[in-house]
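ok so for the tutorial part 2 we go from a plain amino acid sequence to predicted C-alpha cells. step 1 is just haveing the sequence, like this:
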Amino acid sequence: MKARDDQKNRRLLATMTNEPFQPVRLYYAIPDESFVIERLRRLGCVAEASHERCWQWLYHAEAGALRFAGGEYGDVPKERRPIVLGRIRFPKHGRMTFETNSIERAIVGARFFAPRFGPEVVAMRCRMVNRWFAADEGDPHELMGVLDRDVTVIDPREAEAELIRDLAGARSPEDAQRAMAERMKRRLESGEDVPAVEDFPLAPEEETPEFERLATALEFRLMRALEHWNGNTHLTLSAIIERTVRAGERRCKHGEAAAMNLDPGSPRQLGEEGLLVLWRDGCEPGQREGFACVLSMCPHPGCACEDVYVDGFVIDGRARAISWQEDRLCVSWPAGADSAQATPTAKLVAIVDPESGETRAHPDLPEATDPALLSWLVSEMDGELLDLLHRFRARAKGYPPERPMPTIEIDACQAGPVYEYEELFDGARSDEYVLAGCRYWTLMFFCLDPDCLCHLVRVGFAAEESEDGDTVGSVLVKLRGGVGFKVQEIVAECGAPEHLVRELWARFVRRHDVLSFLWGREARARQVGATLWREAAEEKRGASMPAAVSSQPVRVTPKPGRNDPCPCGSGRKYKKCCIDKRP
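step 2 — the prediction. this is what the C-alpha cells look like for a chain of 583 residues:
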C-alpha cells in the first residue's frame, strides 16, 4: 500500500494504484459455483488462492490494460506485480461476493466481469465502509474486516414503501417533482446520513451495461468520504447529492452571456466561447435546421476529468440569433415570426472526449438524448471540431493554449532535423483513436530545417497500453503544396499487423483535412526550427547570438517522454500527470 498526505498532514491509506482505501463488497446471484468457476478459469488475470479460500483478481493479463484515476499497470513496481485487485468468494449456494479495497476498483471490476460472466450473474446488493482510513489505523487486510462490523442493512421494501408514501398525492410529473423536492428538504433538515457500514440493495433491472447507477451511488459516497476526511463532517450524503444536483452537469458556467448571429447557409458556426451551431437541410425544400450546442465541463485544474459536456437544442433556420443566458438558450426571431420557440428544450445531453472524439449519451440521462441528434453530433466530430473542444477545455481548466515550448532539447535537434510535434509545442491536442477497445495516439514527426524542400511527415500510431511508447506502425506522407499529399509508405512495427496501421490511417484521413492539417503543423514546426537552426549555427561558430534573433533557452535536462515517470515524483506516467500543467 502507498500513503499520501492530505492538507492536515495525515497520511491517507491508499491502494497500490493510488485510490483511497475504502472497502466495498458486491453480492451476486449466480446459477451455481461451477458456472462461475468455469468462466474464471478462462481468464489469465484470475488465480485460485486455496489458502484464502477465494479466487484472486490480479492486475495482470486481460486486466493489465485497465486504468485507474491514480495510476495504471506501468506505475506498479515490477517487484510487486501482479497485485491483487479483488477477491471472489462463494459464501453459499447460488451466491457470490466480489470484494475489493476501493470504490474505483469495485466499479471497474463490475464492468470488467459482467460481459465475461454473462447475464446469468446478477449484482444484487452492495456493502461498503463509508469513510477513509489513515495509514496508521491498521493493516489493510485486517481493515477489510470492518465490512462485517456494525452493519446497517437497508431493507428495499421499507425504502420503496417510504417512496410510495411520499408520492401518494402526486397527479402529474410536476407534483412528483415537488414531492421529491420536499423529500430531499426533509432529509437535509433532519441531518440523516448514511451509516458507517452500509449494506444497500441494487436495482439490476434498471442497471446499465456500464453499471452507471452503481457508479453514481458509489461516487456520491466517495465524495462524502472525501469531505469528511477534510474535516467537513457536517456534510451528509443528502447534502452532497443536493449540492451536485443544484450545480447540475453544467458545472462550468460560461461567465458572460454568449451570443451568436445565425448563418443557416453555412455548414457550421464554431464559437470559441462554448456556443456552436451545426446546420443541415430540413425536411421541407429550402428549409434549414440548426443544432445548437452549449459546452460545459468541470473547471477545476486538479480534477482528473477531461470530457466536455454538450447540451443540444434543435433550432429553426428562420431564427436570427441565439444566446445563452442564465442556464437557458434563447432564440431571437425576425419581426412577425412566431416566438413560441424562444426558449427551446434540450434534446441531447452528451459527453465528448476531445482527444479521441468518443461521443456518448450521458449515462444518467439517456432519456434526455434523441438518438438521431447523437448520430448527427458523432458525424460532425472531425479534427476542426475536436480542436475547438480542446481549446474550450484548456480555457476551462486554466491550461495554456498551444504555444512553443519554453525550453527545447537543442542537442536532439542538432542530431537530426526530424522532431515530434508535441515535443515542440505545449498544449497541443493529443490526436487519439479507439479501435477494438484499444486506444492509440498519433505521433507526428516533421522536418524542422527551414531550408529543406522535402515536406515529408511521418505519422506514427502508439498503443496506450505500451509501456515504452513504441509505435505499432507509421505512415510516411509527402505534402505537395496546394495539390494534395501522397502516401510514400505504410510500415507496421513491433509485430503489429499492417491492416491495423491501415485502419488507423484511414480514420486519421476521415477525421482531418490531411493536407491542411499537416501543412499547418509543419509551418508552425519550421518556425520553431528556424530559431533552433540559427542558434545551433551560432554555437558552432562560437559567436554570440545577434540581437535581432530571439533565442529559445537550451534545456539542461531532457524533457520526459509521454510514458516516462513524471518528474514531479508522483510515480505516475508523465502523460497522466503534469503534461498539461507546464508553466
